[in-house]
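== Sequence, structure tokens ==
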Amino acid sequence: MNDFDYLGEGEVYLDAACQSLRPRPVIDAINQYYTEHNSCGERVKYKWGVETDEKVEATREKVLKFLKLSARKYTVSFTLNTTYGINLILSQLKASAFKKVMTSEIEHNSPFLSTMAFSERTGLPREVIKREEDGSIDVSSYDFTNAVVVVNCASNFDGRKLLNIKELLKSVHKAGGILIIDAAQAMAHSSDILRGVEVDAICFSAHKLYAPSLGVICWRDELAAKMEVGFVGGGMVDDVKKDSYLLSAEGKEHRYTRFEAGLQAWGEIVGLGAALDWLNKLPKKAWQNLDNNTRELYEFLSSSDKVHLVNHEPNPTMSFYVEGLDSHLLGSALSRENVMARTGYFCAHYYLDHVMGLPPLMRFSLGLHNRPEDIEKVKKVMAKIIS
């Protein structure tokens, strides 16, 4: 794809689950911000600032449109990353409104650790629930009464999806709980399972969505009633007196400021808007290419008796280990051939190490930048190493 023309010949990037590469239109949009209207948003009246404000507001609208959520019900706030967003929400929830916190066994450390911290802070019990091989949750097995439920809708080591997310949401809401979704791994290639699903909050990282390093919280306005703002600063207030302040977030127009203390990453927000435009305009052949590459690589790995895949089906994110070969050494060997991939437990230590008892793994995570020749090279190099 010409939008990734900066990739050198023979360079194969297979770490999109960590952060995707950025297409030219996104890079151009960021450069345009810094060279044509570098300014503080929401603080100035000169024309550069007006242009920044317009583009930032447009990005909020694009996020809602991408997720097919109503601006009458939802607000989009920007932060650092998914981890920061989840922590920001949990650290400000009223403990009195809930009876427990729940997460699942296949979570990234973002929800896993933050729910631990929430439990320790509030004294509420924490429950780790099981996920099926297809990523779903057997909702009939759990009591969600007044629970804070924080789970992913796509795993970061094998891409398994929360296919029954609507059923889970219905059960959680019926029991008086709230559902917070870690969508970091879903937004780029599996956003279809999220669109139009009215969970209480969706947290994701723009840098996994072909955009700059940035965090996003898309949250239901009703969630505000169950929160106490405890992380405050510039950009959030309408007035400040000696011993009191008035938050801008009290009104719908500026409700997004509830999670936006201090100066925001305006250029990165503009870049996210460009990334969403780019994704929406992609031809079908780009998605078909990703699907073809995924299936070809998955079938190749599945064909070897020495390769042990965590995946149960093809997914752009696939993890495995090679029998008798340390994954970190494998990663170094691939690097010498200009193949870039991640090794280890991918911040999912509890499940991969302590539940499954797996050794450190190799992860291949494909993106829209990958070419058919990338897959051919990886197959050739891996075949040589395995043999």
Summary: The CA atoms of residues 2 and 45 lie 38 Å apart. The domain at 37-279 is CATH 3.40.640.10 (Aspartate Aminotransferase; domain 2).
